[in-house]
Design goal:
The complex is a heterodimer. Chain A is α+β, with helices and mostly antiparallel strands. Helix content of chain A is 52%, strand content 8%. By secondary structure, chain B is of the alpha+beta class. Chain A: It is found in: Cytoplasmic vesicle membrane; Endomembrane system; Golgi apparatus.
Chain lengths: 819, 187
């Protein structure tokens, strides 16, 4: 049997292979030879064969059949065998294979070997891939070696102990005694690994942490020696003595000083010293400075030191070395929350980094820039960020656009600026904007009441230029549908008004419908917009034609819309103006997202049959006054009107909460017909009045008297609407103890901003005299934040020929009604 | 300020799981620092050395290697040496025709990691005398021995070049002595 070929020979041969197939063939041949050699239990060449196997394994070929052979090598007495055997074990075995446990005994023996290099091999293998079982079995041996005076073994035992602790944290205690004088060592290897071990223990256990706090002076001394001592050739790296050890000590100091004033104070001086004296021309010095900065920021350092640290980071930002700049941006991002002002000072440098060529740096700079935006610098920062948005890679655009929207929303100095910024983003990065931005933007636009004409004009012009960016197109169509009348009116305060005819507008919208660039969602938007214009434009016939065409569209969504709109033209034409009226100002309950009331769809068109009739936008000023009047000062209430009732006769029984205001374009509101019974006659689908409420739920909440004056008494009774425990349903009972009827009785209510209110139709607007009957009305209050319920009520009625009006506050709600 | 556990999508999750139950100590666990792996590969994507300091499956190892090759080899010439990948920091440096690549925990000091890689190259250079890729190809086991005298369990073991060099010399002598007895070449 010829001797197996030598390792280097094999490597040379394999490298001559010209194709993958050739290589595979050679490997297979050699594997076969190796396998038969293993079968023959050849001790002499086992080492050579396993070495070859390891080489083939590195090339990517399977080598598991050599696992047991590695174990045999480990068990051999020859150092060469052990060396290759342990290497093989580390490469081929891990705790997933049961076979690895067979190593335990060998390792145990070798940990007690007479030759330190054999002991070293065992420690190394255990410390790199020892499983929890092995660690448990051998921890004692490791602990023994941790106490030896042999520094070669001691340092390896220390890192092995770290591994044991990581695998089996419960064993940490047993290493505590051995750590007693680890730091008195002179040998840097032992010092370094000891610091690593101490760090590991302190991180895992607060008890250990407090125990080791007493080491701070010693650590400070060691660090000081490293800095102050002269040139030491053995540990020198570009003029700095043992940077690895310095960094590890700094990290341990960080952990020890973190929440402890005394320790932090004890290390203040040395940190300042390192920060000011370390040579910054090479990477190694900057590595130490970096660690120092991290430590300063994390412990309870005095403010002067913190400013020093931030300034170091600021200097890093100006460094030519990309790595340093990257690291500075990362660190600043971490500290921007806690030391905001200090970081602000470096804002211009950070913004310059947006123009860096390196992708990682650009991303960090972008994140940091957004974190630095505030009310003072918004204009300047936004200019830079928008410029960045224009020119950055596509991978950044979505995040940048979202960031711009968020920042603009928080800090916009004026509505016009806000709208302009939104326009800029939509036109430059329109296709990267996130889908959920569209409803947010629409909501923002509706709320900027005085900017509607300007906004719709700009959006229209943008559409003329480019219809490929869907978010832009969707927002634009919605706005044109909503404010098309402003567009053709030729009036615009903010800029030169454009002259555009109704036909031109309809051309654009129809163009969207047919364009290949439009997504189905966009088509839906534009069809709805066209429909809305039927109440704003005069060319209704054209709109009718368009809508009827799409009644047979292949797209189900479009078809459904068109069919419904058709019906709106034919059968429900009387409802059309009311339904397609201006949108109300949409409130958000939370600052982050649209409310459930606002919409889940992008277009917020009320569906037929159930609509909340909004007060006309034409009189926003009056409304605002009324709203403020009712609750005064800061609490702008959300007032909901009653639901229209389904009657065949009139176009919706509307009882506007603000009563007297006439609705432009809507049918004259008829007050609910006077029905002198206490039972409400008009029931809406899904919304039931009081008899249907679950009385069991009501059991716990006592009724209360909300108002009692001049003979008019109003009681509140409570129910809880079962499906949603946040909704409290209150029924008012108004009774009149005077001798004359109270006619034209109107009850209005307003609640603080965190609530939402809905008032259903009253049973009647005549409160009969002498308590002969009561007028009832249902109020639904949504209270998602479970805050204390308060309400202001306004009552108007005619009594004995004169009009009465009263405002009152209701504060005595029982706790159960809002908890 | 530095907070956040690693999200459970990567090697680190397996590392955390293999660490055994978290002793409920309420201290900051996020300061974990260690090197997860070291890879050496050529410009053509040939692996020359792989050292893993965590327990992961073979399939996962292959995937990591593929990802590293893709990420590092695609980097434009004058970029920074750091890449964020999953929840690890990747530090890489090119020496002649070989890329040295290390995967670090998120809290690790990446500037120091560059020094670690550099130190390893210096050790190789001292041992082989003007080391080149061929040395590492033909003596890969020696490259591992050298690495194992410098790093252990993902941490720096010895900070003195002289000490590491000395150990290696001694151990090599040990090897030859034993084999002289056998009167056969090493392998």
């Amino acid at each position: 049997m010829p001797a197996p070929i030598r390792l280097r020979e094999l490597i040379r041969t394999i490298r001559t292979a010209r194709t993958q197939a050739e290589e595979r063939e050679m490997i297979q041949k050699e594997c076969a030879a190796i396998r038969s050699s293993f079968r023959e239990e050849d001790n002499t060449y086992r080492c050579r064969n396993v070495a070859k196997l390891l080489y083939m394994h590195m090339l990517g070929y399977p080598a598991h059949f050599g696992q047991l052979e590695c174990l045999k090598l480990i068990a051999s007495q020859k150092f060469t065998d052990k060396r290759i055997g342990y290497l093989g074990a580390m490469l081929l075995l891990d705790e997933r294979q049961d076979v690895h446990l067979l190593m335990t005994n060998c390792i145990k023996n070798d940990l007690n070997h007479s030759t330190q290099y054999v002991q070293g091999l065992a420690l190394c293998t255990l410390g790199c891939m020892g499983s929890s079982e092995m660690c448990r079995d051998l921890a004692g041996e490791v602990e023994k070696l941790l106490k030896t005076s042999n520094s070669y073994l001691r340092k390896k035992a220390a890192l092995c102990a770290v591994h044991v602790i990581r695998k089996v944290p419960e064993l940490m205690e047993m290493f505590l005694p051995a750590t007693k004088n680890l730091l008195s060592e002179k040998n840097h290897g032992v010092l370094h690994t000891s610091v690593v071990l101490l760090t590991e223990m302190c991180e895992r256990s607060p008890d250990m942490l407090s125990h080791f706090r007493k080491l701070v002076p010693q650590l400070v001394r060691i660090l000081k020696n490293l800095i102050m001592s002269g040139y030491s050739p053995e540990h020198d790296v570009s003029g700095i003595s043992d940077p690895f050890l310095q960094v590890r000590i700094l990290r341990l100091l960080r952990i020890l000083g973190r929440s402890d004033d005394d320790s932090s104070e004890a290390m203040n001086d040395i940190l300042a010293q390192v920060a000011t004296n370390t040579e910054t021309s090479k990477n190694v010095g900057n590595a130490i400075l970096y660690e120092t900065v991290l430590t300063i920021m994390d412990i309870k350092s005095e403010s002067g030191l913190r400013v020093l640290a931030i300034n170091i980071l600021g200097r890093f930002l100006l460094n030519n070395d990309k790595n340093i700049r990257y690291v500075a941006l990362t660190s600043l991002l971490k500290t921007v929350q806690t030391d905001h002002n200090a970081v602000q000072r470096h804002r211009s440098t950070i913004v310059d980094c947006l123009k860096d060529l390196d992708v990682s740096i650009k991303r960090r700079a972008m994140e940091l820039s957004f974190a630095l935006v505030n009310g003072n610098n918004i204009r300047g920062m936004m200019k830079e960020l928008l410029y960045f948005l224009d020119s950055c890679d596509p991978e950044f655009k979505a995040d940048c656009a979202s960031g711009v929207f968020l920042a603009a929303e928080k800090y916009a100095p004026s509505k016009r600026w806000h709208i302009d910024t939104i326009m800029r983003v939509l036109t430059t990065a329109g296709s990267y904007v996130r889908d959920d931005s569209v409803p947010n933007l629409i909501q923002l636009i509706t709320n900027s009441v005085e900017m509607h004409a300007y906004t719709v004009q700009r959006l229209y012009k943008a559409l003329l230029d480019d219809i490929s960016q869907q978010p832009l197109v969707q927002v634009a169509s919605w706005c044109i549908g909503e404010y098309g009348d402003l567009l053709v009116s030729g009036q615009c305060e903010e800029e030169e008004p454009i002259q555009v005819t109704e036909d031109e507008v309809l051309d654009v919208l129809e163009g969207l419908l047919v364009s290949n660039l439009s997504t189905p969602v966009t088509r839906g938007y534009s069809l709805t917009a066209i429909m809305k214009l039927s109440t704003r434009f005069s060319s209704v016939n054209r709109i009718k034609k368009v809508v009827s065409i799409y009644g047979s569209s292949i797209d189900v969504e479009l078809q459904q819309r068109a069919v419904e709109y058709n019906a709106l033209f034919k059968k429900y034409d009387h409802m059309r103006p009311a339904l397609l009226e201006r949108m109300p100002i949409m409130e958000k309950t939370a600052s982050n997202g649209p409310t459930e009331i606002v919409q889940t769809n992008g277009e917020t068109e009320p569906s037929m049959g159930e609509s909340k009739h909004p007060p006309p936008i034409g009189q926003p000023a009056n409304q605002a006054n009324d709203l403020l009047d009712l609750l005064g000062g800061n609490d702008v209430p959300v007032i909901q009107t009653t639901m229209p009732t389904k009657t065949a006769s009139s176009g919706g029984e509307l009882l506007d909460l603000l009563g007297d205001l006439s609705l432009s374009g809507g049918p004259a509101p008829a007050p609910a017909p006077s029905v002198p019974t206490s039972q409400p006659t008009f029931l809406l689908d899904g919304i039931s009045s009081q008899p249907l409420f679950n009385d069991i739920a009501a059991a716990g909440i006592p009724p209360m008297t909300a108002y009692n004056k001049n003979g008019l008494k109003i009681d509140f009774t409570f129910e809880r609407a079962n499906p949603n425990p946040n909704i409290a349903v209150i029924t008012i009972h108004a009774s009149n103890s005077t001798e004359a009827d109270m006619t034209d009785f109107v009850f209005q209510a307003a609640v603080p901003k965190t609530f939402q209110l809905q008032l259903l139709s009253p049973s009647s607007n005549v409160v009969p005299a002498l308590n002969q009957g009561t007028v009832t009305q249902v109020i639904r209050v949504l209270n998602p934040q479970k805050q204390q319920l308060r309400m202001r009520v306004k009552l108007t009625y005619t009594h004995k020929g004169s009009a009465f009006q009263d405002l009152s506050e209701v504060n005595n709600f029982p706790p159960q009604s809002w908890q | 300020m530095i907070s956040g556990k690693s999200n459970n999508v990567s090697i680190s999750s397996q590392l955390l799981m293999s660490l055994g139950p978290h002793s409920d100590c309420g201290c900051v666990r996020s300061q974990r620092t260690m090197i997860h792996f070291i890879l050496l590969f050529s410009r053509q994507g040939k692996l020359r050395l792989q050292k893993w300091y965590t327990t992961i499956a073979d399939r996962e190892k292959k995937k990591v290697i593929r990802d590293m090759l893709m990420l590092v080899l695609a980097r434009p010439p004058r970029s920074s040496n750091f890449i964020q990948w999953r929840d690890l920091k990747i530090v890489y440096k090119r020496y002649a025709s070989l890329y040295f690549c290390a995967g670090l925990e998120n809290q690790d000091n990446e500037l120091l990691a560059l020094e670690v890689l550099h130190r390893y190259v210096e050790l190789l250079d001292k041992y082989f005398g003007n080391v080149c890729e061929l040395d590492i190809i033909f003596n890969f086991e020696k490259a591992y021995f050298i690495l194992d005298e410098f790093l252990m369990g993902g941490e720096v073991l010895e900070t003195s070049k002289v000490a590491v060099g000395g150990c290696l010399e001694d151990a090599d002598t040990l090897q030859e002595t034993m084999d002289e007895y056998m009167n056969k070449p090493a392998y």
